């Protein structure tokens, strides 16, 4: 869900699978934006002896579009390399890892950060250390403290982190993909059962995170920090990609596949759930290989979403107004493909222009709030999804309610949503490690020896 195993081919290549993208004005540093791109879904905390790591053969990128074209105007590139310090052991570590330079750590990983702006590249940092994974209480004692040392400053007011974190996305994966069952409302399902609480299918799972915090002025079209929410220059588009070399060949001497040729995109992500539940299965792999600027070809699946047709069938009698609504879903097109223009939501816009492109759209002039609402904009909190995406935002509920018709009146005042549209949810919340109040914000990953199946624990 979100983008965990969202397409047939990328589900076979988890190290390049972009699971979630977040973009928000930093709550503790309001002159900066934090962008987070997660990869490698459903990580088992006790996945040794070959624990999870970024791909040395994958080009990871975070893209900013600020020109209204749906194309990347600024890109941050991340390239990784792993080392083996002790070639005589099978172990990830031969004793406790107490620092990033600890010789007990047998397979450290390092990375570089490059900024590309309109074709011009500049290396911002080389040989930055990623932290080890959270092996367990003996191998990685005081893991939270150790991970903090992997937060790097790469210039004034700029930070970066790349390493394992607890997955902050939450959704009832088991139930949702069982004929779109929502446990709190399954008594109304076509195949009914007693109502129940939702079950977070991501509980106990870790991900690998690339987190970047930079000044707002690094990302805007004119290099300024906007103060007017209605200023078109206040809006940026954000998405992330993973790319591999065009061909891979097995090297008999090394025993590994070696890439050749130019990089080709194999995964991308902007809005949560777009490829997951909007794009048909036959198109998903093609979508992953294409840039957002070509998303006009997928607009038909946005304005006539399959899920909107399934809800009235799977929940008989619950969504009669949605079933009767035959117009194109201009509300979803605005939310997912162009941003919301002026005049739709009073005092707010995150419109990037008429080019239809799946990106997170963040109005950087909207300040963070001390009392964030997980339902974001639909609950009156303009600092939340679909204005960018914060870690606390309940995007599954927001998008379910939007698909169920709750946002249609924004563009079609004659429509009155079904009563269920404002109540529908999957009934889950984050059951992994608590979020942090500072960069990189994601919680401490579940540790190997501390965890049992389905139960996360962090030292």
Automatic annotation (TrEMBL):
User: For the region Disordered, what residue ranges are annotated?
Assistant: 420-459
Biased composition of type Polar residues is found at 447-459
- Tell me the protein's name: Uncharacterized protein DUF4331
């Amino acid at each position: 869900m979100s983008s965990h195993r969202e397409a047939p081919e990328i589900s076979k290549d988890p190290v390049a699978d972009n699971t979630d993208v977040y973009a928000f004005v930093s709550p503790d540093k309001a002159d900066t934006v934090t962008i987070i791109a997660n990869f490698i879904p459903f990580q088992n905390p006790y996945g040794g002896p070959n624990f999870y790591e970024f791909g040395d053969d994958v080009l990871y990128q975070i893209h900013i579009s600020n020109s209204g074209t749906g194309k990347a105007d600024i890109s941050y590139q991340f390239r990784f390399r792993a080392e083996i310090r002790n070639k005589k052991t099978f172990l990830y570590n031969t004793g406790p890892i107490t620092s990033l330079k600890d010789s007990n750590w047998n397979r450290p990983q390092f990375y570089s950060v490059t900024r590309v702006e309109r074709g011009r590249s500049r290396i911002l940092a080389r040989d930055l250390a990623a932290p080890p994974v959270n092996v367990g209480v003996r191998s990685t004692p005081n893991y939270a403290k150790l991970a903090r040392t992997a937060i790097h400053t790469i210039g004034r007011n700029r930070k970066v982190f790349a390493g394992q974190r607890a997955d902050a996305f939450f959704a009832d994966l088991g139930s949702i993909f069982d004929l779109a069952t929502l446990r709190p409302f399954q008594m109304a399902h076509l195949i009914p059962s007693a109502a129940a609480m939702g079950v977070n299918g991501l509980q106990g799972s870790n991900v690998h995170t690339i987190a970047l915090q930079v000044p707002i002025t690094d990302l805007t079209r004119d290099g300024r920090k906007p103060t007017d929410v209605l200023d078109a220059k206040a809006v940026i588009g954000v998405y992330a990609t993973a790319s591999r070399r065009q061909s891979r060949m097995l090297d008999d001497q090394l025993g590994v596949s070696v890439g050749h040729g130019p990089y080709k995109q194999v995964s991308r992500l902007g809005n949560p759930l777009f490829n997951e539940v909007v794009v048909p299965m036959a198109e998903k792999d093609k979508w992953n290989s294409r840039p957002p600027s070509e998303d006009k070809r997928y607009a038909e699946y946005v304005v006539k979403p399959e899920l909107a047709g399934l809800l009235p069938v799977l929940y008989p009698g619950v969504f009669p107004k949605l079933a009767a609504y035959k117009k194109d879903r201009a509300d979803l097109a605005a939310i997912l493909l162009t941003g919301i223009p002026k005049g739709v939501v009073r005092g707010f816009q995150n419109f990037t222009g008429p080019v239809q492109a799946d990106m997170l759209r963040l109005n950087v002039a909207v300040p963070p709030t001390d009392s964030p609402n997980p339902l974001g904009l639909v609950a009156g909190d303009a600092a939340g999804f679909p204005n960018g995406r914060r870690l606390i935002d309940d995007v599954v509920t927001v998008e379910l309610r939007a698909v169920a018709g709750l946002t249609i009146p924004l563009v079609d005042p004659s429509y009155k949503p079904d009563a269920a549209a404002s109540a529908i949810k999957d009934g889950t919340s984050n059951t992994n490690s608590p979020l942090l109040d500072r960069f990189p914000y994601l919680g401490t990953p579940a540790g190997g020896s501390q965890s049992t199946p389905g139960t996360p624990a962090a030292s």
